[in-house]
Every structure is written in structure tokens, then in C-alpha cells.
Amino acid sequence: MTVTRTNEEVKEELLAVAKEMLSCGLVHGTAGNLAARLPDGNVVLTPSSLDYRTMTLGDLVVCDLDGNVVEGERGPTSEKSLHLSALANHPDVDATMHCHAKYCTMFALTRKPIPAVIEEVLVYLGGDVPVANYKTTGSVELAEEISTYLSDRAAVLMANHGLFVVGRNPMHSLELAQLVELTAEIVWGAMLLGEIVPLPDTIVEQFSSYYRMGRGRS
What we know:
alpha+beta
């Protein structure tokens, strides 16, 4: 059964997740940003350049899908196009997160995808985490580029930048970002030990299909 939440409840969750994103080390300072689709169809985003530790509900910004601010006194994150494009083009997604997780960013800098060599990565992310082509931070071109990778994936690396994930709600997006970061660390360590052995193709197809079937379900 689908549980209907209020705009206020979604905002409260987004704020809590923003603070947790900082405390668990996925970002530092005022880096990174989040967004979530509200029940009324608009989108709540974190504001630009504000310390997560002091951020309050009143600091959050609400925009329509065209990027027009409809609520809030602050300016939205400079990367609002990134979030709005993902939400507009993928109606089965209700939350987005961009962070600078350390190991993920290492892969993004070397432009190497994070391989799906662990079964849970296939189930929860849909497959390997690809690297999108480099586009300037905050640009519409970057937003469009990133969105093209999200039809059958929950995560994509932003070249020379960081990680972008999509989920069912803000907490889900945080959990997925943590999974990608842990996987990146494991793969990085495994590569130091030797050659990584991939999963059988049949398993890749079987387990990635679980993600496709479950995407968007609450």
C-alpha cells in the first residue's frame, strides 16, 4: 500500500538526510546537494552555499520542474538543473543526491566505472556505475548528460567531480550513495590485490532485472 506523505514530511526527511550526508563523510563543508519530489509535484532542494549543520527547514527552497522558485527566501543549489532534469525525465524517481564521496571521486577522476562485481550492486543499483562525459558544473549540458544514464541505473559518476544517485526518497538515496562508496572502496582495494573476477553473465542479467522490477517501489 502506498503511504501518502505531506510536503512538510518530505522536507523534514530531506533536511535530516542532508545533515547525515555531512556527518557520514559523503561531503565536506557546503559541498553536495539534494532534492526530492513533493506530493504537490514541485521539488524541494537544498540551498546554495549553506552549512548543513545550521541548515533549517526555512532554508530549503522549493522550485517547479522548470526551475522557478515558488517557495523559500534563499537561492537553490547552483546545481538545481542536475536534480530537476533527473526528476523530470524519470518519473519513477522521487529523490536525488549529489555528493563528493572519496572513493567514488577517485574513480570519477580517473574516469573508470565502478564495476558491478558484487550481487547487491546489481540488485540495488542496476549494474555498474558508469562515468558520464565531462560537462561544466551547474550547466544544463551536465544535467542533460547525467540524466541519460539513469534509465536503468541508480547511480552515475560525474567525470572529474563526484557521484549522483537517484532513489525513492531522500533516505533511500543516502543508502544508495553509501553502497556505491563502500563498493568503490572494496573494488579499489581488490584491484591492489590482483585482477577482479567478474560475475557470470547469467547472474548479472538475473540480479540486475531485480532492480528494474523494483525501481520506484516504496
